[in-house]
Design goal:
The structure holds 2 protein chains of 2 kinds. Chain A is α+β, with helices and mostly antiparallel strands. Chain A folds into 2 domains: about 160 residues, CBS-domain (Roll), CATH 3.10.580; about 150 residues, 2-Layer Sandwich (Heat Shock Protein 90), CATH 3.30.565.10. Chain A is built from 12 helices and 10 strands. A 5-stranded antiparallel sheet of chain A has the order 6-7-8-10-9, covered by helices on one side. A 3-stranded mixed sheet of chain A has the order 3-4-5. Chain B has a single domain, classed as Udp-n-acetylmuramoylalanyl-d-glutamate--2,6- Diaminopimelate Ligase, Chain: A, domain 1, CATH 3.40.1390.20. A 5-stranded mixed sheet of chain B has the order 1-5-4-3-2, sandwiched between helices. The mean pLDDT of chain B is about 95. Classes of the chains: A alpha+beta, B alpha/beta. The interface between A and B is medium-sized, with 32 and 24 residues.
Chain lengths: ~325, ~120
């Protein structure tokens, strides 16, 4: 049951009992039976049977002569042989011949009913000419049901993909599809600083971007986000565009602008306020760290106009983001 | 080194256990989040005296699973809530940054080694 349980939890949805009922009515014995069956001819001696049962750890062996099922030898036949000193006699003297069988193409439901009613541990599975094609136990039914449920689950998941946002892109057709995430960042808002970067990182991980890449994007974006908080008059925006082969993050604001970009890029150069320094920033490392993390960084800035920092991250082809 | 071992070494306390079982191989101590963002490797222990929401955010961006606050600084509840949400472990040590680091180093938790020279403005 625990296996079935995990399937339900994986599905994350109700799996009505009626589905299992339908399954055992629909499922054919041939799909769940064990087809490779160990058999013996009726001339086998009972002490050989005893050894085989022990060595192979089986409790019942179908007896087949010329391809036809003629009987079945079980542990209880063996006990009869032991009691009657018949270990040197052939199996034909002790095997059960009045057999309850099932047919390969009948529903599992019928076979299960027969197993219950007769109390036997296994049903030999025969075709129309009474040739043995397999054997069926309750365990087989159980495993078969689990597999059938798993297939059902995969099918349900495939259908769900079309509806879920995560796979949303698969249903869209365009020459190029990308995901754009846009965030507003306010000046001096240290309390919420990092929210935009955290959400971009979560989105990347959610759509299957590699963790190392997501980390690089998150750190660079966070540096840019902190810059918007520390240095701008009125905050700005962070826009992340996620494409299958690259991720572009742009942080832009409307001022005050950077008078000397070359100077600002140098490690250790900072014009940050005391508050920013108190928060653990303003060490003059932001832009150089963005350059370190991103595959490409472009800055445009004009005093009293604003600043735009663009960071581009290449997605390795083998790890293409699951958008396309 | 597991979080339970870390707090035992520094005679500290775990406030939020990390979301996953963590076994850190290295540690990094800094009050400058800028330094952490530049230098920290993922999956290390961060030792800091900087107590604010940006400390948690920095750890989140840099894939740092546990933060150890020094000098007996117990973070405010809103920070703990944020850390729990993200899944970052929080602990504190009653010792100063220097002694906390020394104790952990002596207990066999190494640092990141020698860093390259960077000319500062």
């Amino acid at each position: 049951m625990s296996q079935q349980f995990s399937i339900f939890s994986r599905m994350g949805m109700d799996f009505p009992l009626s589905i299992i009922h339908e399954l055992i009515r629909e499922l054919r014995v041939s799909r769940v039976m064990t087809s490779e069956v160990f058999t013996l001819p009726s001339t086998t001696l009972m002490h050989e049977v005893k050894e085989l049962m022990r060595a192979q750890r089986i409790s019942g062996i179908p007896i087949v002569d010329d391809g036809k099922l003629v009987g079945i030898v079980s542990v209880s036949s063996l006990i009869c042989a032991l009691e009657g000193q018949g270990l040197d006699d052939p199996v034909s003297q002790f095997m059960a011949v009045d057999l309850v069988v099932c047919h390969a193409e009948e529903p599992v439901f019928e076979a299960l009913k027969r197993l219950d009613e007769t109390g036997v541990g296994r049903l030999p599975v025969v075709d129309d000419e009474r040739r043995l094609v397999g054997i069926l136990t309750k365990g087989d039914v159980m495993v078969g049901l689990v597999h059938a449920l798993e297939q059902l689950y995969e099918e349900a998941e495939r259908l769900e993909r079309r509806r879920q946002p995560r796979y949303f892109f698969e249903a869209l057709e365009s020459d190029e599809t990308s995901l754009v995430l846009r965030y507003r960042v306010r000046a001096n808002d240290f309390k919420n600083g990092g929210k935009a970067s955290a959400r971009i990182k979560q989105a990347l991980l959610q759509i299957g971007a590699p963790p190392r890449l997501s980390r690089r994007v998150a750190i660079a974006t966070y540096e840019a986000e902190i810059n918007l908080i520390i240095h701008t008059d009125e905050g700005g925006h962070i826009v992340a565009e996620i494409c299958p082969d690259k991720i572009t993050v742009v942080a832009h604001d409307a001022g005050p602008g950077i008078p000397n970009i070359e100077l600002a890029r140098q490690p250790g150069y900072s014009t940050a306020s005391d508050l920013a320094r108190e928060m653990g920033f303003g060490a003059g490392m932001g832009l150089s760290n963005i350059e370190r993390c991103a595959d490409k960084m472009n800055i445009w800035s004009a005093v009293n106009v604003g600043t735009r920092v663009e960071m581009v991250f290449a997605v390795p082809p083998e790890e293409s983001v699951a958008i396309s | 080194m597991k979080v339970a071992e870390i707090v035992e070494v520094v005679d500290g306390e775990i406030l939020i256990p990390p979301a996953r079982d963590v076994d850190v191989l290295q540690a990094f101590a800094a009050d400058l989040m800028s330094d952490v963002l530049v230098l920290a490797e993922p999956q290390i222990l961060m030792i800091t005296g900087m107590v604010n929401a940006q400390t948690i955010r920095t750890a989140e961006m840099a894939d740092i699973p546990v933060i150890l606050f020094v000098r007996g600084k117990r973070p405010p509840d809103d920070m703990l809530v944020l850390a729990r949400e993200i899944g970052i472990g929080i602990a504190f040590s009653p010792y100063t940054m220097y002694e906390t680091s020394g104790l952990l180093y002596a207990a066999g938790l190494p640092g990141l080694g020698k860093m390259p020279v960077v000319q500062q403005r």
